[in-house]
Q: What sequence folds into this?
């Protein structure tokens, strides 16, 4: 089976004539859009709007193919200078349309009978939500010139700083065990079965950040200051307000979720302390033991075994999902193993030109890695559900982005626990699920608190690496309580987590997705196969409705704290079961 993904169906390199042709086509399309938007006032509204939509669809399709190819190349090799240069070139071309896009949006927002105009055109009528959002958010739009300036400056600002963080963490050499390794590999050792290895890997990881912490601190400070300035210029109340409006999500929904999480945090602290006791510690759990395997789960899986496991499992759930998973393995959608220069973690990217996805993991064969594959394949399944939308209707917002991925995790874990034949196996599976749940509740909450504290202070002070470490530890103390030993917390989580290096919050969506998916899975358990069409429709609607409207497809009120408590209670019950198994 392949170890690396295959990008050849997209382009065969930057010298591929198809790549050069698409890049030239993009430049022509962007220039044509710029010219067209300068004459909008001279046209009938339907002609003007349709012309803009046609142009934007073409630009979107070309940009998606070109930028995705360069980005995927760079993700597996941070030293790929050709990919970095190509991506920068594509984004520079696209940024040139910022002024034209602002003119289009300003024009569309001022069309008096907008609903009637779009209803009279077959293509425009499919963009009802798109135009509704333009009208609602028009007050945050700057002039065409200002939008163009912001877009161009971000290339040498936040985008460049983000690239720096990615490059430094991807290429960081970590001294370990008499040799050197990379950051992804050393972090994977947190799952090792030997406690001495876990502790040594944690210490080596923490020590390695000293070489890059100051440069990454400059990156974080610069990105967050740019975000603060942009939010102020546009008239948002705060970066969080800007994030929520971009995500088409209400503050009431976020508040309901966080308040419910606050109520249940002590339950997760109890889980961590129970694990500490089981591992022979008094009191709180050391950070480096959070992912210590428990029970009888030492089995490892080849990629072929992972494929067979997932195809067979999802075949009992949904035929469309099963077929897509089989295709992903058969057609080299997945880049499996860690290596020098490859970014850490895992992600899934939709490649709309191919009607496929590409998945990056840092696979080492554990059952946890199979769960990670299932998670990323959930993103691919989400991409599949929205594929029949028009090009500009394919962007789902951050909160719902984690829905299908976490739902897949629920499917795989429920099946594995149900099939467990003895106490040790069941304990291992439940504990693995609680590890992940603790990440989306405690760790994500700590990330949210940290980022909020950075935004609260950045206008007044430059946050040094040491100060950022202080804020990180403070956020972890509040979120992990007495569940983790204070002296072993991870002050450098702000260095290694790429989610901080975008312009807006990208942390709470993981908690949202985790709890939202568990609520959906609870409904699936009640309704069985009859729930699947509703589930797929919900995924389909995530790109053309607000977060709250999409949830209502499944009759869920996201502003009601009771819904979030439902998912949290499922996890609390699992914690009780885990503790009881330990006490037997």
A:
């Amino acid at each position: 089976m392949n170890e690396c993904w295959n990008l050849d169906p997209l382009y065969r390199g930057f010298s591929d004539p198809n790549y050069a042709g698409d890049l030239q086509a993009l430049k022509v399309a962007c220039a044509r859009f710029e010219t067209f938007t300068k004459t909008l006032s001279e046209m009938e509204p339907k002609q003007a709007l349709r012309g803009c939509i046609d142009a934007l669809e073409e630009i979107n399709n070309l940009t998606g193919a070109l930028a995705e190819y360069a980005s995927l190349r760079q993700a597996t090799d941070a030293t790929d200078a050709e990919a970095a240069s190509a991506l920068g070139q594509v984004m520079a071309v696209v940024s040139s349309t910022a002024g034209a896009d602002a003119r289009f949006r300003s024009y569309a927002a001022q069309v008096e009978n907008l609903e009637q105009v779009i209803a009279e055109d077959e293509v425009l009528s499919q963009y009802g939500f798109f135009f509704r959002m333009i009208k609602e958010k028009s007050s945050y739009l700057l002039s065409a010139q200002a939008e163009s300036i912001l877009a161009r400056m971000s290339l040498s600002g936040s985008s460049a700083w983000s690239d720096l963080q990615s490059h430094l963490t991807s290429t960081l050499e970590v001294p370990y065990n008499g040799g050197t390794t990379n950051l992804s590999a050393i972090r994977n050792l947190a799952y090792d079965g030997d406690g001495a290895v876990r502790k040594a890997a944690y210490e080596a990881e923490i020590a390695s950040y000293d070489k890059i912490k100051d440069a990454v601190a400059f990156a974080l400070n610069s990105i967050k200051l740019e975000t603060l300035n942009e939010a102020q210029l546009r008239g948002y109340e705060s970066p969080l307000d800007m994030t929520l409006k971009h995500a088409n999500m209400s503050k009431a929904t976020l508040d309901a979720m966080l308040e419910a999480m606050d109520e249940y945090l002590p339950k997760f602290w109890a889980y961590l302390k129970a694990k500490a006791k089981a591992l022979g510690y008094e009191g709180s759990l050391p950070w480096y033991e959070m992912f210590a395997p428990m029970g009888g789960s030492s089995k490892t899986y080849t990629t072929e075994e992972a494929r067979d496991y997932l195809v067979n499992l999802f075949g009992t759930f949904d035929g469309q999902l099963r077929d897509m998973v089989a295709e992903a393995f058969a057609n080299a959608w997945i880049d499996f193993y860690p290596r020098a220069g490859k970014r850490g973690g895992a992600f899934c990217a939709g490649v709309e030109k191919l009607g496929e996805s590409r998945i990056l993991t840092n696979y080492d064969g554990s059952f946890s890695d199979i769960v990670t594959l299932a998670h990323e394949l959930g993103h691919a399944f989400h991409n599949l559900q929205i594929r029949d939308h028009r090009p500009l209707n394919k962007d789902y917002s951050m909160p719902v982005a984690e829905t299908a991925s976490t739902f897949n995790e629920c499917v795989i874990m429920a099946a594995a626990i149900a099939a467990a034949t003895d106490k040790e196996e069941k304990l291992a599976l439940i504990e693995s699920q609680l590890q992940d749940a603790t990440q989306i509740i405690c760790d994500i909450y700590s990330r949210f608190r940290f980022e909020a504290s950075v935004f609260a202070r950045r206008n007044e002070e430059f946050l040094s690496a040491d100060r950022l470490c202080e804020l990180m530890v403070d956020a972890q103390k509040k979120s992990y309580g007495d569940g983790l030993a204070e002296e072993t917390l991870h002050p450098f989580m702000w260095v290694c987590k790429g989610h901080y290096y975008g312009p807006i919050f990208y942390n709470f969506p993981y908690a949202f997705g985790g709890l939202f998916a568990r609520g959906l899975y609870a409904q699936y358990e009640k309704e069985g196969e009859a729930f699947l069409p509703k589930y797929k429709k919900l995924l389909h609607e995530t790109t053309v409705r607000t977060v709250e409207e999409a949830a209502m497809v499944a009759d869920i009120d996201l502003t009601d704290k009771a819904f979030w408590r439902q998912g949290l209670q499922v996890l609390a019950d699992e914690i009780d079961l885990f503790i009881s198994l330990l006490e037997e």
Notes: The longest helix spans residues 423-458. The two ends are 43 Å apart (CA to CA). The mean pLDDT is 94. Residues 71 and 318 are 31 Å apart (CA to CA).
